[in-house]
Give the backbone structure.
Amino acid sequence: MEFKAYKMDGLGNDFVIIDERSKNLDLNKEQIIKICDRNFIGCDQLIFIKKNRNIDAGLEFYNSDGSKSGACGNGTRCVAYFLSKEKNKNQIEVWTSSGNLQSKIYEEKIVETKIGIPKTNWNEIPLSKELETKNLKIKILDENNNEFIGGTAVNVGNPHVIFFINDIDIFDIKKIGPEIENSKLFPERCNVTLAKIIKDDHIKIKVWERGAGLTKACGTAACATAYAAKLNGMKKSKINIEFSLGILSIEIDSKNTIYMKGPVSEIEEITVKI
């Protein structure tokens, strides 16, 4: 099978985008995993653009392990830019399994997406048992086997747990991430974020994504971290979330609606032979 696809990224969080509005390719899980494999093409997530009669398009997200994801913030921003170029307009609305998302496209490939209102009840994360989601009291160890206990759970279309710590570099997220992701506490698994507050409007994070592993950036993790920071006393409504390759700007309005704004890459057309 041979078909056209596209590659894009948001701050290094990269995607293969397949447009199925005119033809459904019916790719199976093994084919999705192969496309995501960095020894073949490689990406953090695979995105299918679907036809939608009511709005600009529908989106389906798949992680690199072949599992389905309900939301992908950076992926949504990338596709919004893709559709804006095609449709020659600067406002795009797409369907996802977590709800409709509206995006606005600015100059210099800057895209803002309205993520919506996060969920924090234990059964909305979801957790396997009732706990106070502001502090799950999960124990993690640094490289010197010192304990840190914490973890704030937030769902922004997919489940996240965020640890606010003083030094994120002394914790091995490649070890901590999969342990927590696959914990029995999270029946749908979860994304894991280590966060360091730099100042009252600036947080630096590292992210282990459910089904994808360590990624250079994660839009929903940025949103979840900003909201978790608010729950833990941070007062600013606009927070810059720093990744290794740049910053996403997160704004939380008076109704707790989250907006995410940042750059996306140019669109690269590729040919997939599978």
The first helix runs from residue 29 to 36.
